[in-house]
Amino acid sequence: MDAFTIRVEDGIGWLVLDLPGEPVNMITRAVRHELDEALDRLVADKEIRAVVLISGKPDSFIAGADIDEFVALQSREEAYELVRSGQALINRLERLGKPIVAAINGSCLGGGLETALACTYRVATDNPKTRIGLPEVQLGIIPAAGGCQRLPRLIGVRAALDIILAGKQVVARRAYRVGMVDELVPSAILEEVAYKAAKRLAGGWRPKRRRVGAADLALDRNPLGRRVVFATAKKQLLKKTGGHYPAPEAALRAVQHGMKHGIEAGLDMEAAFFAELAVDDVSRRLVQIFFATTALKKDPGVEGDVPEPVPVSNLGVVGAGFMGAGIGGVAVAQAGVDVRFRDNDFERIGKGLEGARKILKGRLKRRRIDKYEYRRLDSLLSGSTGYESFRRCDLVIEAVFEDLDVKHEVMREIEENVRDDCVIASNTSTIPIARIAQVVERPERVLGMHFFSPVEKMPLLEVIVTDRTAPWVTVSAVAFGREMGKTVIVVQDQPGFWVNRILGPYLNEAGRLLQQGVTVEHIDKAMTRFGFPVGPVTLLDEVGLDVAQKAAKVLCDAFGDRMRSTEGMERMIEDGRLGRKSGSGFYRYEKGKKRDVDETAYEIIGAAAGSKVPREDVTKRMAYSMLNEAARALDEGVVRSPRDGDIGAIFGIGFPPFLGGPLRYLDELGAKRVAETLQQLAEAYGDRFAPCPRLVRMADAGERFYPA
Ligand code: 3H9
Q1: How far is the CA of 549 from the centre of ligand 1 (A)?
Q2: Domains and CATH numbers, the chain
Q3: Which one of 22, 24, 28, 139 would you pick to mutate in the ligand 1 pocket, going by the greatest count of ligand atoms within 8 A of its CB?
Q4: How far is the CA of 246 from the centre of ligand 1 (A)?
Q5: Which of 259, 285, 491, 580 makes the best surface tag, with the fewest CB within 10 Å?
Q6: Which atom of ligand 1 is nearest to the CA of 134?
Q7: What pLDDT does residue 212 have?
């Protein structure tokens, strides 16, 4: 055996999994085979009275089934065979006849948790890297090795659906609270506690399940109560997925079926659904996104010789407004670095500190950190009206007002007050970095770090490099962005960078449709049905019409008419209708809550009388304007690869993940078809739709962005 070792100590068999050559443990075909053999030995060895299943790796218990194996599956039959063999093995583990303690440290996900659920007792460490959950639906499949059966029986249907349907991974503390694990311990004593539990189990101890979720479990026993739980879950689910993601719906049915007809029937359904979903296009695209994100975690951001990144332990943030506070707050919460704010007066600094603290408080409230960690992190936040102590900073991010003169002034001040090896970043969403860097003496250490708002929630970071940015500066910003928990793409310093560049024509098209008399609801619904989390008009209101208009102007100055926005938008701004922040935009807002469409907006923008553009036409105009721009910007080298472009669109603007990103979707539609449709749109609505040269070339040559 390569992956498993067994040692026996005083009647306890230690079954240690350490998959050779891999950073994490996962359940490969070979691991399944070996586990079967190991179980034979554990049964045969009369000396062994109980077993501890533990990992030999530092931060990974078991990260689930091997995703590469799914990718290789060619048919439903093959998928069915795979899932059945997995189920049989886990059933065997559950019925071994000897108690098993799962000693969990590090990732315990998917098939890893399903394995642990089949054990008699679960002990988990409070290591922050211990993440427990069933992320399968994020890959377009369902927990199919009994997860949809054993988890609801352990913690109640409602709590289990909360984990399964969202593909959640929770920290051990939360897993303990809901009853997924029986004991929570510091890493240092995991083995000792697991060993003691195994000893007690060997002596006939029957652990009493803690009465967590008692109300839920009572509800589960009542068929009517159960029906209500499932009906509510389904309703919420469909609202969220818009019917685009078959996996969560299948998981819901597998749980429901199993609860009604018993675990065997539930397993049959899990297997049938898994076989269908694993070879389905949606799953394939979601898996591609997983691999792209994983690859990005290792991408230093530069090609060729890769210099060492400057380790950041002191961060300076100039401008303690909403963005600055968000950046500082996430930096301290996620990367644990010392954060120094600088702003013009103490009131602003106070607000910035409060904003950053709010992020820490949120984590404390959600029990991601305890009160001691909260205090420690809080003490790392400070602020001042001067630049004293900026000499200690390894990275300074300016997040001041989007005005070139202001940025210039700040850049000069920063350069005067920092060390030579300090990286200087600008958090701008519109102004070219090269222009911001014009006033500094050493532009090679300047780049852009474009965070999205709100910083705590938005997963993407665009690192923007100019022709002069030095590689050590790029790798340092990329590495720190990752420490902040962001998915980082490196983009070229062109107007709009990547995300705003491809968003520009899309939002402008929404403006044109509005102007034409198409209703707000019709446009928003068309695009949420397409798969965006919010419609474009809602997005405009969220971003702020003034902010969107500023970005549109930058794009129009650079790229001309194709990027021109409508006059209606200007009129809305003149009228003070800036969106959510001003209490009214295209929608009405009351106490921060979005209400109905504000019909007076049509008058302000001078919309034509009610126009009935069919939904498909709205979708086509909106989506194709984005696809065309994505192909064009990629061709100009704004992003380094289709992979980065797709991840940027998915994480930056919520491009529907089930479509794989704009470039993957373009491949799916075919360049020829897209180019032809764009040509038709151009004839009907104007040159802005003319297919970009890259698409025309690809259409002629039958090319794709990704290999087939
Ligand atoms: C499942 O279990 C189905 C069952 O219900 C039913 C079956 C019948 N497979 O992310 P990292 C690789 S579905 C293959 O950089 P981190 C990863 O690609 C599975 N490979 O580290 C990377 O490879 P490389 C449900 C995997 O510390 C390397 O490990 N499980 C798998 O930032 C390091 O990964 C999941 O969805 C896998 N399962 O994060 C969990 N897991 O070095 C998916 C990892 O060649 N995994 N790799 O680039 C994760 O979420 C993260 O990788 C994890 C570690 C949190 C574990």
Answers
A1: 41
A2: 4-279 (3.90.226.10), 314-492 (3.40.50.720), 499-701 (1.10.1040.50)
A3: 24
A4: 22
A5: 580
A6: 25
A7: 64
pTM (two decimals): 0.94
For residue 607, give the nearest of 578, 566, 645, 636 by alpha carbon. Answer: 566
Q: Is 61 helix (H, G, I), strand (E, B) or coil?
A: strand
DSSP H helices in 141-280: 147-155, 157-166, 172-178, 190-202, 214-221, 223-241, 246-261, 263-278
Give the Å distance between the CA of 596 and the centre of ligand 1. 43
Contact predicate 691/674, CB 8 Å: yes
The predicted structure's pLDDT at residue 54 = 98
Beta-sheet strand order (sheet of 338-342): 381-384, 338-342, 314-318, 395-398, 423-426, 446-451, 460-465, 487-492
Instruction: Determine how β-strand 60-62 pairs with β-strand 487-492.
Output: unpaired
Nearest CA to ligand 1 atom 6: 144
- For the stretch 182-193, pLDDT in tens is 999 999 999 999
Residue 65 in contact with residue 29, Cβ under 8 Å? no
Question: What six digits make up the tokens of 464?
Answer: 């923007």
Quote the ligand 1 centre to 68 CA distance (angstroms).
9
Rounded CA separation 65/113 (Å): 10
Active site residues: 462
**Ligand 1: which residues within 6 Å by Cβ?**
23-24, 26, 63-68, 83, 86, 107, 109-111, 114, 135-136, 139, 143-145, 147, 294, 297
What is the model's pLDDT at position 328? 98
User: Is 586 a residue whose pLDDT tops 80?
Assistant: yes
CB atoms within 10 A of CB 559: 19
Tell me if 305 sits within 8 A of 471, measured CB to CB: yes
Q: What is the mean pLDDT of residues 31-43?
A: 96
Question: Which residues touch 584 (CB under 8 Å, ≥6 apart)?
Answer: 577, 598
Alpha carbons 562 and 547: distance in angstroms, whole number: 19
Residue 1 has pLDDT above 70, yes or no: no
Reply yes or no on whether the pLDDT at 601 is more than 70.
Answer: yes
- pLDDT-derived band at 546 (thresholds 50, 70, 90) equals very high
More confident residue, 370 or 264: 264
Residue-wise pLDDT for 200-245, tens only, equals 999 999 988 766 666 677 777 788 888 889 999 999 999 888 889 9
Distance, in Å, from the CA atom of 448 to the CA atom of 428, rounded to the nearest integer, reads 7
Nearest to 698 by CA among 667, 657, 664, 658: 667
Closest CA to 332 of 345, 351, 355, 315: 315
Alpha carbon distance 426, 447 (integer Å): 6
